[in-house]
User: What shape does this take?
Amino acid sequence: MQRIVLLTLGWLAIVLGTLGIVLPLLPTTPFVLLAAWCFARSSPRFHHWLLWHSPFGRYIRHWQQHRAMPPGAKSRAIFLIIITFAISIALVHILWVRIMLLVMLGLLVVFMWRIPVVAETTDEHPPPR
Assistant: This one.
C-alpha cells in the first residue's frame, strides 16, 4: 500500500512540477525533488528514469551530489522567475495581489540567490539497471 501511495505522490509531483515550468506561483524544483524522493523509496525503475532520462535528471543528480546548482542554471531560473512574475503582476489589477506577488518574487529571488553554484566535475554515466 505504501508503494502505491509513494508512486502516486511521485507522479503527481512530476505533473505539478511540469506545470510549474509555465505557472509562476507553482514551483518546479520542490515537486521534482519530492518525486525523486518518492521514486527512490517506491520504484527503482521510475527513479532511474527520473535521474537519467527525464529533462530534470541532470539537475537532480547535480543537487544530490553537490547540494548546489550547476553554472548557468541559477541565472536562467532567476530570469524566468522574474519574467513570469512580471507577467502575472501586469495581468493582475488588484493592488494587494500585486503587492503579494512582489513580496513573493523578492523572497524567491533572495532564496535562489543564496543557493550555491558548483561546476560539474565529470559527465556521469547511468548506472546499469
User: Anything to note?
Assistant: The first helix runs from residue 2 to 19. The radius of gyration is 17 Å. The mean pLDDT is 88. The CA atoms of residues 1 and 7 lie 10 Å apart.
